[in-house]
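Researcher: We plan to redesign the surface later, but first we want a full-length starting point. Tokens attached.
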């Protein structure tokens, strides 16, 4: 009976140890995968935040972190489009202001020449 109790106790310890090792291994694998994905996402967000809108975050995983990476990439592409549109619009406004100055300058020069020539015609 004593040997049966010892065997049962050893088996229970072995099973608890095996279960603990399984939990630890499972935790470490999950933790590493999630942590690595979050670190990659964070680094990508820092690069994008610094102004590099051409950067694309790797979308390796098919989980929530992968979905978030995909959303960041889509947001970056949209932001790049909006920024390009804004730059084009600012360039257009600058060109139009420059053209207006040239037009106003040439029109005032033409008006002053025609006024002088009219005065000259009257004096004759």
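Model: Full-length starting sequence:
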């Amino acid at each position: 009976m004593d040997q049966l109790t010892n065997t049962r106790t050893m088996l229970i310890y072995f099973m608890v140890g095996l279960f603990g090792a399984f939990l630890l291994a499972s935790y470490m694998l999950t933790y590493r995968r999630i942590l690595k994905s979050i670190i990659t996402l964070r680094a990508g967000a820092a690069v994008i935040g610094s102004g590099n809108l051409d950067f694309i975050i790797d979308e390796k995983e098919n989980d929530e972190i992968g979905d978030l990476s995909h959303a960041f990439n889509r947001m970056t592409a949209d932001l790049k489009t909006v920024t390009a549109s804004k730059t084009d619009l600012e360039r257009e406004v600058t060109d139009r202001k420059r053209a207006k100055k040239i037009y106003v300058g040439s029109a005032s020069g033409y008006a002053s020449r025609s006024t002088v020539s009219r005065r000259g015609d009257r004096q004759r």
